[in-house]
Write a structure and sequence with these properties.
With about 700 residues, this protein is mostly beta strands. The protein is about 5% helix and about 55% strand.
Length: about 700
């Protein structure tokens, strides 16, 4: 078959060359100790600090359900993107299509597969500001230090989208001696990959982080042949495609990314950090479904982002100003009879804004308040032939939001009781934009506002044992096309925005019990949650003096579940002469039902159970290993393939659970050189996160890393 190899960008080559030179320049002159020994003081990082409350705070003082994916996890797994990392580490449901498209489901909320026209129920953040994309497959983990997964409503801090929770990607901010690493790997399906990072202090005022990554899967992947914990019908989960083999055709792709951060200390109290990154995925092959009802294709995916952070302290004030910008573009490609390739459809999302906040320390208490401003514009275009533009399906749209928030952290009873009340008020404007080749676009601007209160508390009975609880409201704003104006689409149908349309809203409360001992690697938590989800937005055809399509609030849902998390490091018993950590998490939905005018039905695309568990070992000398499993519970999905299923004709079908096991072993030759072998889907499970699109079966990868 034709290779999907894509030549790396010139900037990628230049930075890779620079890193190769630096890897030599900063190589220590002394011979490294062959068998370095790590003791407890080296291994135990101490109290974990997270920024999920928009300021740095010790994890033990945050009265919410927070999971932290550490830098050690990221280094051990070496994930290609955020999708792969979250699948293997977090108690969230990641739904992925072949061809760089994925989204996340939390606590029973429906996932978004990267669409800007569909509601997004999980807020994606980068260093606390909007990530700028709904597609987690475009988030490179090469320059990410750790990830904070916050369960429950977060609109009181971050505004729209955070009904289910928040995922905050925290970038590397290296200081001190300059260090780095370079790695190269090869694996199944003709996969080549390479990455390099370097960072540290240039002098006593300036520091930096620089990273590049290249990934190329040159062959179509094969899906699995086994089902470990279920016996699904071949109509639900075929073991062969329409051509009679288990190859998922047209799934090869290539990506490259570059990222740079420069930091400068302005004074003893203030510093500035400038960050930019580029993600390129040209000629991504997109698979049709396994039944052959949809055609394969090719697309380009590009992403650019930049931000500036000015932070510092004056007296008891900690101030941060963060302007940001991002642009995402996806182009679906065709090739005409002359061999010329053109974009028959393209979508571009531009987003920019700023955050301004002040965290005021009042004794043991803290008050954080600030202003957020965000503008997002989504544009589409179509071509019928190279250079021949035609009317897009819908007009361009724009939303602008101004949010004012405040949250306090009150430490009472000598710190045993922590209370965090919070409020936020968002004011949003919506309007369609004049769009080339599309007539009759009404650009009238509409406005809306929403008030988001929240309250959380925790009480520590004895050191390490606490109870936590929270309650909050959250919302997801409609899109500009749903709220404002009217237009004739490319088929001649009239669409009208509904000025009375309300945001989708939720009210969630949870309560839990946590036992933790960071020194001994122990954490156990059980949390129960209950959500009332109202005002689903859906389209409606109206027959009046003029017939038209519009949008209405038409349904509600009830979500109830329980989350378990436990982890323990047996190495703590021997003062960490080695580490042997066992971990497990499981989420079970007691109820996930949707109610509309037709009655009550099970929620689709939401799993009734989701779990991950495993064990990892590190002797701190030569050998490390990790074995982990991901449990995907049963799920209801819309049956789009009734004509391909002889007996299963119902509009909604229940799909069986599956179990995916991964393994990694690593060998340290010395302090600088390391070899890792990874086997993904070890037992060759045949499973699909989305009906009709089976995921890769067993695959192997070997990676060589040089640290300097």
């Amino acid at each position: 078959m034709k290779s999907n190899f894509v030549k790396p960008s010139k900037s990628f080559i230049r930075m890779a060359g620079l890193l190769a030179i630096l890897s030599t320049a900063f190589q220590p002159g002394a011979v490294a100790e062959e068998n370095p020994k790590t003791d407890a003081a080296d291994y135990v990082a101490g109290e974990i600090v997270v920024s999920s409350t928009r300021t740095d705070e010790k994890l033990k003082n945050i009265p919410r359900k927070v999971e932290v994916i550490t830098s050690k996890d990221i280094e051990a797994l070496n994930p290609a993107d955020a999708t792969e990392l979250l699948k293997k580490t977090a108690a969230v449901d990641v739904i992925e299509y072949p061809g760089l498209l994925s989204g996340v489901s939390m606590r029973g909320f429906k996932p978004n597969y990267g669409s800007y026209y569909s509601a997004q129920y999980v807020a994606y953040l980068l260093d606390g500001r909007p990530l700028g994309t709904n597609n987690l497959s475009t988030v490179d983990m090469n320059m990410i230090d750790h990830v904070e997964v916050i369960k429950g409503p977060s609109s009181a801090l971050y505004g729209s989208n955070g009904m289910a929770g928040t995922i905050n990607f925290i970038t590397k901010k290296s200081q001190g001696p300059i260090k780095g690493k370079v790695s190269a790997g090869y694996g199944s399906f003709g996969t080549y990959e390479g990455s390099a990072t370097i960072g540290g202090s240039i002098n006593d005022r300036m520091d930096f982080d620089l990273g590049v990554r290249y990934f190329n899967e040159t062959e179509d992947y094969k899906f699995g042949k086994n089902t470990l914990i279920a016996n699904p019908s071949s109509e639900l989960l075929p073991d062969k495609n329409a051509k009679g083999n288990n190859t998922m055709e047209n799934t090869a792709y290539s990506t490259n990314s570059e990222s740079l951060r420069l930091g400068y200390r302005l004074s003893d109290n203030f510093r500035i950090d400038v960050r930019g990154s580029v993600f390129n995925a040209p000629s991504v092959h997109t698979a049709g479904d396994i039944f052959g009802s949809s055609s394969p294709g090719v697309k380009d995916v590009f992403r650019k982002t930049a931000d500036l952070t000015l932070s510092g302290s004056v007296g008891n004030h900690s101030i941060k100003f963060l302007p940001y910008w991002s642009e995402n573009e996806s182009r679906n490609l065709k090739t005409d009879t002359s061999g010329e390739t053109y974009a028959y459809y393209n979508g571009r999302n531009k987003e920019y804004g700023f955050q301004l906040q002040d965290a005021i320390k009042l004794g043991e208490h803290r008050l954080t308040a600030g202003i957020d401003y965000n503008t997002a514009t989504y544009q589409t275009g179509r071509q019928s032939a190279p250079g021949v533009s035609i009317a897009p399906y819908s007009p361009d749209g724009k939303t602008a939001n101004l949010g004012v928030f405040a949250e306090s952290s009150l430490k009472l009873m000598g710190g045993k009781l922590v209370v965090t009340p919070g409020v936020r008020y968002d004011m949003t404007s919506f309007n369609m934009l004049e769009t080339p080749l599309l007539s009759g676009v009404d650009t009238t601007k509409e406005h809306d506002s929403f008030f988001s209160p929240s309250l959380a508390f925790q009480y520590t009975f004895v050191p390490g044992l606490k109870t936590h609880a929270s309650i909050g409201k959250a919302f997801v704003s409609p899109t500009a096309l749903q709220k404002a104006g009217e237009y004739l689409d490319s088929y001649g149908y009239l669409w009208r925005g509904n000025s009375d349309l309300k945001p989708e809203t939720s009210r969630t409360w949870d309560v839990g019990l946590t036992w933790s001992d960071e020194k001994h690697g122990l954490k156990a938590d059980v949390t129960y949650y209950d959500t009332a989800w109202d005002d689903f937005i859906t389209s409606k055809y109206v027959v009046d003096t003029t017939s038209y399509y519009t949008y209405v609030n038409a349904a509600s849902a009830k979500l109830r579940g329980i989350e378990f998390e436990v982890g323990y490091d047996f190495g703590s018993r021997v003062d960490y002469h080695y580490s042997l950590r066992c971990f497990a998490s499981y989420t079970h939905l007691f109820e996930a039902t949707e109610t509309d005018t037709t009655g009550e039905t099970p929620m689709t695309f939401v799993r009734n159970g989701l779990g991950s568990f495993g064990v990892e070992y590190d002797d701190f000398k030569f050998f490390s290993a990790r074995l982990s499993a991901r449990y995907l519970g049963s799920v209801y999905q819309t049956n789009y393939y009734t004509s391909y299923r002889p007996t299963l004709k119902d509009g909604v079908l229940e799909f069986d659970p599956s179990l995916v096991i991964d393994a990694t072993v690593g060998f340290a030759l010395n302090r600088q050189n390391r070899i890792d072998l990874t086997v993904q889907n070890l037992l060759d499970e045949n499973y699909a996160e989305k009906d009709g699109y089976p995921m890769p079966g067993r695959s192997y990868n070997v990676r060589y890393t040089v640290a300097f």
